Each structure stands twice: as structure tokens, then as C-alpha cells.
Amino acid sequence: MKNPMLEALSLLLEKLLLLSNLRLFSAGTAGEDQARRGFYDTSSFLRGDVLEVPRTHLTHYGIYLGDNRVAHMMPDILLALTDDTGLTQKVVSNKRLILGVIGRVASIRVDTVEDFAYGADILVNHLDQSLKKKALLNEEVAQRAEKLLGMTSYSLLWNNCEHFVTYCRFGTPVSPQADKFCENVKIIIRDQRSVLASAVLGLASIVCLGLASYTTLPAIFIPFFLWMAG
User: Are residues 91 and 124 both part of a single domain?
Assistant: First the structure.
């Protein structure tokens, strides 16, 4: 049986992670989008390589399948709205991506290297060094990725693009990015100043909005839970 408190905390952490990285999904003009896509020399890429694209706050990952094709996990709200592959196979727009993150719907899809990287620099198999794990054989990595193609649930904390590639590459799904975010949240919670700040904000909301259940209960319970967690 699932713990409703843990589910609520997990949902809150995911929304905080989404908000903290919202600049990653900032939309540009059509001209800017087109300019971001450049030509990539894929001659050094091997089938089964992990391609890593650093962004402003997050890093996007994919598995190279050969022939300029990359398998990667992409949130996309359109998958929940239509079965038309002609629409869903188009490059995912920023709005579709953000709504897909909120709706927790995604797919493991295949795009060109250009559409995957979107003009950013590409690192190859950087996770091998950073995680210090032994990688599976490249062909097995690629086959794992191909078997997972299609719709999937999405979670910024528990099932994102990094979980996908680490499962394919190492056999175990992990996400250092999500782990680092959770550690930062723990540090904030353990800081007693967070309790004081939440209490002050709670009192301010009561003063501004009046004494009601929707102001009083959060003003009491949020500082209490932060204090207990710390």
C-alpha cells in the first residue's frame, strides 16, 4: 500500500525540480530554433554510445543507434491526446515538453542527432567516467534501447532520460541529477532557518488572507513538518 505522505512529498519535489529548471525549456523564436540545429560529425559515434547534451541546468541523454539516429526519452503531452504518429513524431516543442513533464507522459523515441542535440555540444560516454561503472557491450546497450521504444510514464525524480540511458548502458537505472536535487532539498529542510521562514510566511498569509483553514493549517503544519524532518 502506497504511503500518501510519501507520494505527496515526491510530487512536491518533482514540481520544485521542474520550476528550478524551467529556463531549460524556455521557448525561442522559429528562427532561433532553426539556427540552433547544426551539422554534427557522427563518424566517431558508435552504436550503443551514450550521447550527453549539457543544458543550462539539466543534461539530456540518449543512446546512439547508428545511421544518425538517437533513442532518448522525451516528455510529450501530445501522446496523451492523439494516436496520430504523424503529429507525435514531429520534434517536441517546448510547450509539449513542459506539459508532458507535468502530465507525466513521455515516450522513448528516435530522432536525428541534430534534433536530439539542438545545437548544443555533445559528450560521448561521459557517464562511464562520472559513474565509474563498467558498461555493457555496445550492441547490447543499443538493443536494450530499441526494446524500450514507445510510450512510457515520466518522472523527473524516478524515471527520466538519465534513468533510461543508465539502465541501457549499465543495467541499473540511476540519475545523479535527481539525487543531487534531493540532497539539496534535504540541506534546505535541515536548515532551521527554513522553519523560521515558513512560519513567518504562514503568519503573513494569515494576516493578509484572514484566519481560515486554508491559511491556518499550512501555517501550522509546514513549519512543524520541517522542524520534525530537520
Answer: yes
Q: What is the pLDDT of residues 45-75, one digit of tens each?
A: 999 999 999 877 789 999 999 999 999 999 9
- In whole angstroms, give the CA distance from residue 92 to residue 78: 9
Q: Which of 161, 168, 182, 208 is catalytic?
A: 161
The answer to whether 161 is a known catalytic residue is yes
Query: 123-124 and 50-54: which strand pairing?
Result: antiparallel
Q: Residue 112 domain-assigned?
A: yes
pLDDT tens, position by position, 150-191 = 999 998 888 999 999 999 999 999 998 877 777 766 565 555
In a domain, 27, yes or no: no
Strand partners, 105: 153
Do 143 and 196 belong together in one domain?
A: no
Tell me: do 79 and 137 sit in the same domain. Answer: yes
